[in-house]
Design brief:
By secondary structure, the chain is of the alpha+beta class. Helices cover 41% and strands 28% of the residues. It has 9 helices and 11 strands. It has helices at residues 3-15, 75-91, 98-107, 109-116, 121-132, 147-160, 181-193, 237-246, 250-260, and strands at 22-28, 32-41, 47-55, 65-69, 134-141, 164-169, 173-180, 195-198, 204-206, 211-217, 228-233. Strand 1 (22-28) and strand 2 form a beta hairpin. It is globular.
Length: 262
């Protein structure tokens, strides 16, 4: 099995850390990995769904097989959701995708449950209203020693969570995020639970010292590009300010400035 698959399983166990949310069912060099993730779909009227992902030895070069079960849905409904997930998996790039598929199902849950349960319009509209609200967050990182590994993980998470991210490398080190608030919160959770860097002794460590300097609804003037991750280095306070000005976030910069000078 690939290193990417093993690393993804480690990340998944950190993301879905609630009781019964994640289970590694099988790990075999011959047969690959089998993981189970339990989540809810359908917004406020959520139904618990159990997703079983079979990751073959060639994964992620080939997509996973997926099984869907739920005490609140019929076999036919689960089968239809499975087909939608398989179609989505086939359309994605050949890279770790389990979390991306779960997030996709959660985000599309209004539409999925409306189709599969015969048209519960309120569920769909409620889910879409929450997804449409965009937030902006500024995170303060303590250090980045293993730059390649750190940046690679941040880039992957922004893609999986459909966020726009910017890493401003200097002193201090800042991360700007734009997107759905639940996805921003999950990004922050990953930072504190996944070993993203190394400490002064060279041992892998988590970003426990990360601080959220600001988390507010996005203004209409701020530039929000497509989901992705950019890295920008700066050498001075004026260059940092200019980086915020470039995306029409001067007001946000002024608001967090006292936190940067403490």
């Amino acid at each position: 099995m690939s290193e990417a698959a093993l690393e993804e399983v480690s990340v998944l166990s950190s993301i879905y850390c609630g009781e019964g949310e994640f289970q590694l069912i099988q790990q075999s060099a011959e047969d690959g990995l089998v993981v189970q993730i339990k989540t809810a779909v359908g917004g406020d009227r959520g139904v618990e769904v159990s997703l079983l992902f079979r990751l073959p030895p060639g994964y992620p070069s080939c997509p996973p097989d997926i099984s869907v079960s739920s005490p609140g849905l019929s076999r036919g409904q689960c089968h239809n959701i499975r087909l939608k997930l398989l179609d989505q998996a086939a359309a994605l790039q050949q890279e770790p995708m389990v979390h991306q598929l779960v997030v996709w199902l959660q985000q599309e849950s209004g539409e999925v449950t409306e189709e599969e349960r015969g048209g519960e319009e309120e569920v769909k509209e409620g889910g879409e209203e929450e997804e449409e609200e965009e937030w902006t967050a500024v995170l303060l990182l303590d250090h980045i020693r293993s730059r390649n590994r750190y940046v690679k993980l941040l880039e992957r998470w922004t893609q999986q969570l459909q966020l726009t991210g910017r890493l401003l490398l200097g002193r201090p080190i800042l991360v700007l995020l734009q997107g759905a608030r639940p996805n921003i919160k999950e990004f922050c959770h990953l930072l504190k639970t996944v070993k993203v860097d190394v400490d002064s002794s060279g041992r892998k460590c988590k970003e426990r010292m990360m601080k959220i300097l600001s988390e507010t609804p996005s203004s209409s003037s701020s530039k929000h590009g497509p989901p992705g991750f950019l890295v920008k280095e700066y050498q001075s306070v004026s260059e940092l300010k200019a980086a915020f000005q470039d995306i029409n976030m001067t007001e946000l910069y002024q608001r967090i400035l006292p936190s940067l000078t403490d």
